[in-house]
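The pair is quoted verbatim as follows:
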Amino acid sequence: KRRNQRPTMTTILLSALRQQRCSAHSASNRPTPPFQTRAVSTLILLRHGQSQWNNPNPRFTGWVDIPLTVKGRVEAVGAGQLLRSRGFKASRVDVAFTSKLQRAHETCELALASMAGPHQHTWSSDRIRRLEGLNERHYGIVQGKKKNDPDVLNTYGNDTVRSWRRSLRGKPPPLDETHEHWMPPPAPTTESLLDCQRRVLGAFHDHIAPALFEEEGLPHHPDERAVVVVAHSNTIRSLMAAFDNVPDESVPKLHVPNSVPILYKFDTATRLPVSSKLQSAAGGSHARWLVSAENHREVRKAITGHTLIRGIFESLDIDNNRDLSAAEIDRGLREYLKEDEKLDCVTVAVAKKVAREMSPRETISLQSFEERALAAAQGLTAPHAKESYFDHDPGSMVLDEQFP
């Protein structure tokens, strides 16, 4: 017998997108160009840089409009530089979406300016659209409180507070007009992660998807369009869960670091992700993470396995020809070590082992690099490393500081 199962938010989103696609395409008589390969549009997700409440003793920030730190601004510029170095210049971006909160909006401005580089005329803040639907999850009565506040823990108990942070449906009590961070309607008074998902996916369906797939008057045709979304941890977590069809119980496992670009490519005909799924902490993911020497440590908290290997391969592929030589691997490692002299020993050991086993003139493809890197990582023993981060148990990665 078939059981009646509650549809996930992913199912709802995909159903809505298919309906929208059918109506849009039935009204279009645009001929298909001859010899056309699969048309692909690109969505770039970016969490804002470090804010003043994202410090070692963080708070429940939510809808409180907290600015970036100096480090957060540097992270935003770095994300833009990384995107530009991988071929995503500001001129390629048709439109950018961000929340109504300044930490996301400033990150968006800085990243786009950095993506423009010396060609600042190629972008304009007029291309940035601010959506309240992309705001961070609302934390109700604890909004503004420190996450380890003894009064909060004593009042509600560790288990209850943990459920607010790590479950899909747990939510803090609502705030009211007497709270210092109360906002009038339509602002919520509290939200669970599921409430936040519904709001964010509504914003995607109503505003972002049309710009990505069908809006007229933008610089590029939908078949080659690029849209940027700069938002918050739970906002991006909600979108990724939908795109990757993550089961509801696994959504809280998704970790989104500050200012690390995450790319999704969509078939403009089906409006579904086209990249093959790779291993992630919450199951398979279509996402492609842009890894660099600067963000490597943060990315390791979020992804493992093939996803991380692919990111490292692309960061070492300096000339972007999808092949690596031993010399490129060596140069890439030098860049990593220049940024971080205490670079994770597994990264160094794996990359060195792959390069050492190559002949002087040999080049290897991504597939070959993945196979060799996984084999090298699985073969590592002390003194190289106690364990390989290519083979973490995803459940072991659910650390307290990963949750907003």
User: Anything to note?
Assistant: The first strand starts at residue 40 and ends at 47.
